Amino acid sequence: AAMKSYMSMFLLLVALSCAVAKDVGKKETKETTSKPKLPQTLSRGWGDQLIWTQTYEEALFRAKHSNKPLMIIHHLDDCPHSQALKKVFAEHKDIQKLAEKFILLNLVYETTDKNLSPDGQYVPRILFIDPSLTVRADITGRYSNRLYAYEPSDISLLYSNMQKALKLLKTEL
Known about the structure:
The chain has helices spanning 2-34, 37-43, 56-66, 80-91, 93-99, 155-172, and strands spanning 70-74, 103-107, 125-129. It is mainly α. This is AGR2 protein.
């Protein structure tokens, strides 16, 4: 008899999770029909009108062939620091404008490339890679324990670091 009640309990759970999934699906279609779907998902809120690459490999390829620096943002959706930085980044008009000169990638997972975590895998962290595909470990934020981390209050530093990444290009290539 115990087995039987487990079974019905299990079925109930399955039914519940399906119902939940359905609701989520409904809500999404309403929002996504008004906005184009692709940039929305790739930007993950960091700048919906910007062009984001889908994978690290694609980003490297594009940086190399377009001669633009690559800007990689590591973040997590449930990290309050990432959320706060994303909001400031997305609302900063100058940054959004400047970002158009970059190949852009935001990642919610780590790549296997160790060069992308010179001092550890923390979020949010932002790294620049030049078209020769060198990680510019020299472009850092203001925290010595997390060199590539930025707080919302560091947004102007991030802006000047983006300018720096672009300037390096002109002088070195």
